[in-house]
Amino acid sequence: SQFEEGGCSVCGEGKKVGNGLGIFAYPEQPEVPCSLLESAGVNGLIPLEQCSQLPPLVTVCECVPFIIYSAAPSNVPDSLATSSLSNTSGATDNISMKRLSIFNFIMIVLAFLGFQS
């Protein structure tokens, strides 16, 4: 797998950051390089529920499809072919609170990694 246990792509299922030098900014939060945000997701430092909320917010990271190259034909792993995270409830259940929770967690991750803004 391309992710550590509990890891995710901040760009969404089957995608990766295309512009690691991009600076992700969110009101009242520290600016974060896209490469660091991606690393935190891949290494499981962002909870899956929160990670699933990030794709529409990280446009500066220029997300691109994640392509697996191999010498021999192979099937696409189930984890890339289907999304295990879906919001079928049709809920807009307090998106502002979810976003606040995401970015509070990111601040904790950044402090843990010793990142200075």
Descriptive report:
This protein has 117 residues and is mainly alpha-helical. It is built from 4 helices and 4 strands, in the order βββααβαα. A hairpin with a 7-residue loop joins strand 2 (23-24) and strand 3 (32-33). The radius of gyration is 15 Å and the shape is globular.
Would you summarize the structure shown here?
This protein is mainly α and 117 residues long. The chain is built from four helices and four strands; from the N terminus they run E-E-E-H-H-E-H-H. The strands form two sheets. Strands 1-4 form a two-stranded antiparallel ribbon.
Major sheet description: 2 strands, antiparallel
Strand content: 5-15%
| Shape label | globular
Number of helical runs?
4
Could you tell me the mean pLDDT?
A: 74
Secondary-structure element string:
EEEHHEHH
